[in-house]
Amino acid sequence: MLSVAWTSWCQPPEEQRLSDLLEQARHADPQGWAKLLIQADAEAVKLERRQAGSCCGIRCVSISRFFPDLHYRWNEIGQSEEYQHDLLKTVIYARRGTPEGADALVVHLRSASSTLDNDWVPLFKTVIGIVGSRRWHVLKDPRLIRIEGEAYETWWSLSRANPRDPYLADNDLTPADFSEGSAQARLKAIAAFEKVLSAENDPALRRRTIELRQRHDTNQRAWFRAGD
Q1: pLDDT at res. 115
Q2: Cβ atoms 196, 142 nearer than 8 A
Q3: DSSP 3-state assignment of 93?
Q4: By the 8 A CB rule, do 131 and 151 touch?
Q5: What is the helix (H) or strand (E) element at residue 74, kind and residue range?
Q6: Which of 69, 97, 195, 218 could form a Cys-Cys staple with 135, CB 3.0–4.6 A?
C-alpha cells in the first residue's frame, strides 16, 4: 500500500479545503463533527486519480493525524481510482443509531454503494442487513425505511424478471436464483413503502406499491449489481 502524508505547507489547493474541514471538525460538537466529515468526504472524492500509483492497487493518503487515512482503490475496468469513503464510515460507526449517523449512511448507500462489494452476498441482502439492524431500525428514519423497501423490492423483482433481462442474462442468472425468500421480500417491501407513504405523497412510489401488491416485476434494480 502506497502511503502519502501531507503537511499544510505542501498541500495542493484541492486538498486544502479537505484539510480545513477536518480541522473544523476537531473542534465541533458531535452533530457538527458529523456534518463536517460528510462534507469532507465529498471533497475527498475529488482526489481520485486516473492513473495507477501503487503496486498493490491501494493508495493511502494521510490528511490529518486526528482522522483515519483515506484509501483509494484502483479499478482496472474503469481505469481510475475509487475512494473508499473512509470519512463517511467513520461517522456511520461513531454515530450509529443517531440522526447524523443516518445522514452519513444514506449518503454512503445512495452514492458509494460500490464500496460495499461482497463476492458472496448480493448487494440487496447486504443493504437489508445494514439498515435492518436494530440500532438503525429503532431510529425510524424514513430515508432508511425507503432504502430497505427498495432492497426488498429488488429481491422480489429479480425473482419475477424476464429470463432475458440483461441484469440476469449477462450474469448467467435466472429468476429462480432469487426465488428463495422473495415472497416474504415482497411483503416487507410493501410494509416499508406504506410507512413512507403515510408521511409523504409520492405518486411513483404509490404506483410501485400497487404493482407489488399485484405481484408484478416493478423493474427495481437499484440494489443489484453485475457480479452479484
Answers
A1: 74
A2: yes
A3: helix
A4: yes
A5: strand 70-75
A6: 97
Eight-class DSSP state of 178: G
User: What grid cell was written down for 111?
Assistant: 452514492
Contacts of 73 (CB under 8 A, 6+ apart): 57, 58, 81, 82, 84
The letter for the amino acid at 22 is: L
For the segment 11-30, the average pLDDT, to the nearest whole number, is: 90
Show the cell assigned to 113: 454503494
Give residue-wise pLDDT tens across range 85-127: 999 999 999 999 999 999 999 999 998 777 776 667 899 999 9
- The residue to which cell 505542501 is assigned: 10
Nearest residue to 208 via CA among 193, 223, 227, 187: 193
Question: Among positive and negative, which fits the CA dihedral 145, 148, 150, 152?
Answer: negative
